[in-house]
Amino acid sequence: MAETKYIFVTGGVASSLGKGIISSSIGKLLQARGYSVTIQKFDPYINIDPGTLNPYEHGECYVTVDGHEADLDLGHYERFLGIQTTKANNITTGRIYKSVIDKERRGDYLGKTIQVIPHITDEIKRNVKLLGNKYKFDFVITEIGGTVGDIESLPYLESIRQLKWELGKNALCVHLTYVPYLAAAGELKTKPTQHSVKELQSVGIQPDILVLRTEHELSTNLKKKVALFCNVDDNAVVQSMDMPTIYEVPLRMQEQKLDVTILEKMGLPVGETPTLGPWKAFLERRHKATEKVKIGLVGKYDLQDAYKSILEALSQAATYNDRKADIHFINSEKLTEENIEESLKDMDGIIICPGFGQRGIEGKFTAIKYCRTHNVPTFGICLGMQCMAIEFARNVLGYTDANSREMDEKTPHNVIDIMEEQKSITNMGGTMRLGAYECVLDPNSKVYQAYQSEHIQERHRHRYEFNNDYKAEFEAAGMKCVGINPDSDLVEIIEIPTLKWFIGTQFHPEYSSTVLKPHPLFLSFIKAAIDK
């Protein structure tokens, strides 16, 4: 295509309606038609990135290959489209303002008064078009975080208004709202949607397509009513009902011809409907899998979004092993020697979750000791891997006071230590070892069998590392260092080969698991859990 087309996805009535899933579904359907697509997320908060946010505030922090800490929706974009996103795919208000202020300090705007319009909105518009201009994508989908009416969103909405005016048929707005069901009245109510669209119109944006989130089937009459009151075509009102899995959503959108409506509105040929063969095969396999594999997630955040990528990677791997992932959260703060047997005995496999800080750490050690001594398939990720090393040092090597420098600055047996290049760093944000790094695998390891490759690349997010001074002792006692970074000699993977499946990775493999390419380590872990 000669010119990049821009689709804006906004939300109203309530947050957490699934703008990321709708954006990903639109992207998937357009990609299936042969178009090159990317998706970006614009977050209205003032943090530079979500790296310093508590997961309870914003869910997990996703990491891109180029080492950017990003919103969890970028995980959905990658899982649905099988693409890799970068720093340019996630912009925050903090980044926008910092860029403008840096330019002002340099004297780029000499003599001008810096204002929201045009300076902030111009910077937003520049970022909206950046990927399209640089890589010539056919479609750039931009999801705006938050809801219409939030004071923080106003500069973004003003930028969309200007872009729709400037780009004409090359820009389109999809607005996602909620249609609640009032049980007392026995009715679905469209008024919140009408108000949300009015709010959007009040800032000069007429949505082209409405996607209505609902728990109940919407009648044709109700959709016609919404179309009439909100100034959109009848065929541009689409319902998005709750589904057993988010991966159903692209098919439901395709059934309602959402992609066709988008193409027609942008003056593009419609052509044949894509069959989405591999995607449907995945879903069919998922539906047929009735037998469960029980996985315990040992962590401190009792919130599904805190471990979003891990949950999706497990779900995908279970499907490809013809099982349903039955995932149980086990709060590590509450685990003790007394209740550990009761908490873990029914689990086929255990994930020791990533995280930061002291809270819940002793419970993780208790869980790891139980799994190691009872030969339960165990997968430690990032801090989970570090906990495996500490537990081994305490209970096998006999260093009862072993710890990580993160938990105890003065520990005499710092089997986990701060990385050399991290010692002089004082700022918290964006300063960890982030992004994709090389790793060389031991050909005689379970991880090598899983990857079927000696050289891999995985994404990191940590400040602390395995202390190589202890490497020989660990290996002599049976815990092998089977994945090493070739440049820094950093231990990336540990495993106990005599156990069924006892592996810890310093990196986050869950970030690179997608619907059509599940991660080999998760596939291998689930297989071991089934065999148990």
From TrEMBL:
UniProt xrefs under SUPFAM superfamilies: Class I glutamine amidotransferase-like, P-loop containing nucleoside triphosphate hydrolases
GO biological process, one term: pyrimidine nucleobase biosynthetic process
Active-site positions on this chain: C382, H508, E510
Residues of the CTP synthase N-terminal domain: 5-268
Keyword annotations from UniProtKB, A to Z: ATP-binding, Glutamine amidotransferase, Ligase, Magnesium, Metal-binding, Nucleotide-binding, Pyrimidine biosynthesis
Keyword ATP-binding recorded: yes
Sequence positions that bind L-glutamine: Y56, G355, L383, G384, M385, Q386, E406, R463
Any one cellular-component term (Gene Ontology): cytoophidium
GO molecular function: ATP binding; CTP synthase activity; glutaminase activity; identical protein binding; metal ion binding
Binding site for CTP: S15, D150, I151, E152, K189, T190, K191, P192, T193, Q194, K225
Entries under Gene3D superfamilies matching the protein: 3.40.50.880, P-loop containing nucleotide triphosphate hydrolases
Domain named Glutamine amidotransferase: residues: 303-527
Regulation: Allosterically activated by GTP, when glutamine is the substrate; GTP has no effect on the reaction when ammonia is the substrate. The allosteric effector GTP functions by stabilizing the protein conformation that binds the tetrahedral intermediate(s) formed during glutamine hydrolysis. Inhibited by the product CTP, via allosteric rather than competitive inhibition.
Leader sequence residues: none
Alphabetized InterPro entries for the sequence: Class_I_gatase-like, CTP_synthase, CTP_synthase_N, GATASE, GATase1_CTP_Synthase, P-loop_NTPase
Residues annotated for Mg(2+) binding in this entry: D73, E143
Family designation: Belongs to the CTP synthase family.
Role according to the record: Catalyzes the ATP-dependent amination of UTP to CTP with either L-glutamine or ammonia as the source of nitrogen. Regulates intracellular CTP levels through interactions with the four ribonucleotide triphosphates.
Note: CTPSs have evolved a hybrid strategy for distinguishing between UTP and CTP. The overlapping regions of the product feedback inhibitory and substrate sites recognize a common feature in both compounds, the triphosphate moiety. To differentiate isosteric substrate and product pyrimidine rings, an additional pocket far from the expected kinase/ligase catalytic site, specifically recognizes the cytosine and ribose portions of the product inhibitor.
NCBIfam families registered for this protein in UniProt: PRK05380.1, PyrG
Quaternary context: Homotetramer.
Record HAMAP family: PyrG (MF_01227)
Name by which UniProt lists this protein: CTP synthase
Taxonomic source organism: Phocaeicola coprophilus DSM 18228 = JCM 13818
